[in-house]
Write a structure and sequence with these properties.
Length: 400
């Protein structure tokens, strides 16, 4: 990254983007364009004609068909990887080899072998995995209550992540076993795995069942049961001995034209907490005080969303209601703002902490741990038995 000029001016953060699909248009670009001092300099895609058209539509000056060529030519400060996951490893390696900071969408790769390669390749640059739920204010509020011990020792966690068939998860590369080998588990599993880890839990063992409803054989629904152990990280853990978790996923949930469902419920020895993170209605807390149970909804501010610079990138065919889009854009601005701050700091330490910033930013190592969980869950479903995950690999170098 370029240093400050002689007159003290800070040069812009130059960002190149790999991929130009819906998530880039709906989330990443609006977030970046709400960050001061950022220039989106190039976009890369597999189809030259479509990539050129996307560059023109999205007001991005340069289009490329090869990630390595784009990084060599443009020398960006950061690369956002939002292509299908089958291409993530190559893109991350090319960006990191040139010293660019890396943001990569989840799922990080196809399996934990790939994600371990990516962690090693990017060991010398700042990284972030696209776990958007960490920027949801209601989830952050519930997490703070859990970490502060307001629920006591946690005994059980339940997560539901259900998408209707019309939500887009049944089309395109989401239906390609080469891109998402475990179907809905590959797609939504990393979110749930990271959410549990962010709340202070590590899965010790996982079992489950699932079903495939289409000819491609990938999972459309699954239900998982986990034995938990306390996790580490910023703020410590409140997981009690013998804690368990249930997680349910679907991409064919009825009604077919209804909204997605995304909820988490945490049960502790002293109280409970719940959050509907898909509806964006805040979170609720309750305590067990004899006959007295109190509930409250914590107010939270998703932030005002004004005009986003550049073209109308929020147009996604009417699939996303305006209120949800507003929350997405506000969350994207916070997430991309944290990534840009990480890039500006130019540091790549083990905790992914940047000067004056959050201590819980998810790096590629967090994406790798989520993929280990997905792999174990897929094995448990295929073999019909519990699978032990072993201890998380932490900050130690990942073995070759």
């Amino acid at each position: 990254m370029a240093s400050a000029t002689a007159d003290g001016a800070v040069p812009p953060v130059r960002v190149a983007v790999v991929g130009h699909g819906m998530w880039v248009r709906m989330y990443l670009l609006p977030g970046l364009r709400r960050c001061a001092g950022v220039e989106v300099v190039a976009v890369c895609g597999r189809d030259p004609v479509r990539t050129e058209a996307a560059a023109a539509e999205l007001s991005i000056p340069c289009a490329y068909g090869d990630v390595a060529e784009m990084v060599r030519t443009e020398s960006p400060d950061a690369v956002l990887v939002a292509s299908p996951p089958v291409h993530h490893r190559e893109a991350v390696a090319a960006a990191a080899a040139m010293g660019a900071a890396v943001y990569c969408e989840k799922p990080l790769g196809l399996d934990a072998g790939q994600t371990a390669d990516m962690v090693r390749a990017a060991a010398g640059v700042p990284t972030m995995t696209g776990f958007t739920l960490r920027w949801n204010p209601a989830l952050a509020g519930l997490r703070a209550a859990v970490r502060a011990g307001r629920l006591g020792a946690v005994r059980h966690v339940e997560v539901r992540y259900l998408q209707p068939a019309s939500g887009g998860a049944l089309s395109g590369w989401h239906r390609d076993p080469a891109a998402e080998p475990h179907g809905v588990l590959s797609d939504l599993g990393p979110h749930a795995a990271d959410l549990l880890r962010w709340y202070g839990a590590e899965a010790a063992a996982v079992g489950g069942v699932g079903q495939a409803l289409a000819d491609d054989g990938t999972l459309d629904e699954c239900h998982l049961v986990m034995r938990l152990r306390p996790g580490g990280g910023e703020g410590g853990s409140r997981m009690g001995a013998g804690a368990t978790a249930n997680v349910a996923f679907s991409r064919v949930a009825p009604p077919g034209d209804g909204p997605a469902v995304g909820t988490i419920e945490v049960r502790g020895e002293a109280g409970w907490g719940a959050c509907d993170f898909a509806a964006g209605e805040g979170y609720r807390l309750g305590r067990y005080d004899g006959a007295q149970v109190w509930c409250g909804t914590a107010a939270h501010d998703f932030g005002s969303v004004g005009a986003v610079g550049g073209p109308a990138v929020e147009a996604v065919g009417g699939l996303v209601p305006p209120a949800v889009m507003q929350r997405l854009h506000a969350g994207a601005a916070r997430q991309m703002g944290d990534f840009v701050a990480l890039v500006r700091a130019g540091r790549a330490d083990r905790t992914n902490r940047h000067e004056g910033g959050r201590a819980d930013l998810p790096g590629l190592r967090d994406g790798h741990e989520a993929q280990r969980w997905v792999d174990a869950a897929a094995t448990a479903i295929a073999r019909g038995r519990w699978v032990d995950l072993g201890r998380p690999q932490g900050a130690a170098p990942i073995p070759v």
